[in-house]
Amino acid sequence: MTLDAIAQRELIEALRLLNNGQVAEAALIASDVFARHPQSVDAAHLLALCQKRLGNVTAAIAAFEAAQRLDPQNATITGNLANLLSQMGERKRSVDTYLRALELNPNSPELLLNLGLTLIDQGDTEQAIDALTAAIKKNDSIAALWHALGVALRVQGDLEQASAALEQAIKLDPKNGRAWTALGVIARLRGNPELALRCYEQARRSGFEGAELLDAEASAHFDLGAPLIAVEKVDALLLQAPMYVPAHTMRYEILFEQGIPIDDALAPFRAAADEAPDDTALQIAFATALFSSDLHDETLHRVSRLRTRNDQPALAALHAQAWLKLRQPDAALRSITQTPKSWLDHPRLAETLAKALIAHHDPAKAGAVLDDALLKSPFDQALLATQSIVWQLLNDPREHWLCDYDRLIWRIKLRDDHLASLEQYLRGVHQNRREPLRQSLKNGTQTSGNLLGRNVDVLNQTRAVIATGLSAYIDALPTDEHHPFLARRSTAIRFAGSWSVLLKDGGRHANHFHPEGWISSAYYISLPMAAPDDSLAGCLQFGQPTAEYGVELPPRKVIEPVVGELVLFPSYLWHGTVPFHGSDTRLTLAFDVVPAR
Q: What's the CA gap between 485 and 121, in Å, rounded?
């Protein structure tokens, strides 16, 4: 529709006012013009932009939709609507709207960038990487595209490509402090905290002082065996941002590993949570910390209050898990059955429901829940681990098909000319006093960061020796596209994590599986003297779940460890170690690998 000269001048003035920050005045003019000319696309679009700036979300969406109806082929209007929906957290609707805008303007790097960022927030990193890669093909000189791609690749776990993407972002924009920080985080995740700190210094030189920078510096210092410096960084961060959730989580976990009693370590976190009862993110993080600290009664109290205000699948799962820890499966089931059925699309809630049904002595029903969940997430290691218990309880032959403890567990004797140097190095990096929270080990310590990523001669030798064993294992695996382990068979792999564990008197690994892996491992560096009266002490056993499943099952396979031997197995297999006693220690190296993208 063509506007008369007066209306055109009014819209030009409204646009000038908007650009000068006089948003309310601009909105009044745009609203008046649109009321007089309801078929004007320009008036509807400008009104939408004004309402968005004013924070009038409902009015802004209505105006955008009116403009969209008047000109359905306008990619700019559709893209602006998608941006608003994304900012509101309506991610699914925003993704659909971005895709519509891209149908109208498929060559827009800006639309592809915003779509990629929204997909990252939504957790759909595969599509995000595709969108951002397509955008870079259209214009490879936009630093923000490379930065976003680096973030998506990091979430996906492809740290090498993520690092390359961020390096390109920095090449295009050398003073981008966020990109320098993100590059440092990847350097740390790859096992190089020294390089990470150099990247963080570059971020500071560029003028960047975001909360995530202090957080990242603290993590790097902790990896370098300097927990006091790490805590100083966290405390400085919490002075700036008292409700910054990751800092609270890191602080209490570091202090716990240094031997501080859990109540003392949690005290500042508890105080922050009590001070901000309406901060949902902080409340959920503190409830999770309570659960990890085995404070299950307080976990129930906190989660119950949270669920009355802002219930969500993750909270329902945490609620039920706390009941299961207290051996009350009926209460766990009640806490889940009150939730919408659609929430079972959330794999952690489906896993928890199945666990509660097993503890309630209904494995058949648990199996049905898992069957549905695995249709949506066929490679979810937690769902597969729980399914293995269901099939074991039902004497279902599919347990053997899934776990095949004889064929899928390998023992490989590796070359041992580096073992003495490796043991000396590993004993030197075990600086903490106690095991980390949220891990399987008891009475021992675990290294921080990606151990095999460190550029140390003996670790480089170890990585090469391990790679030889992995290649032999993978090459020998049969092909089976229907099997959740064998279907992922790939000679292109990457380490998803690596660490060392030092167990002391009474040390053990509680039964567990590795949710982030495909192939998991145990590499034996040093073992205690065998106790003559306990042939199982220190043995690795497979096939038993944790106690909250409420079932007593014998191990399916037991392995007596041998120094210099590498054991490889599917990550979803339940495994743990029998406690040992004595003055000797047990030193191992472990890692997870996954297929490379």
A: 28
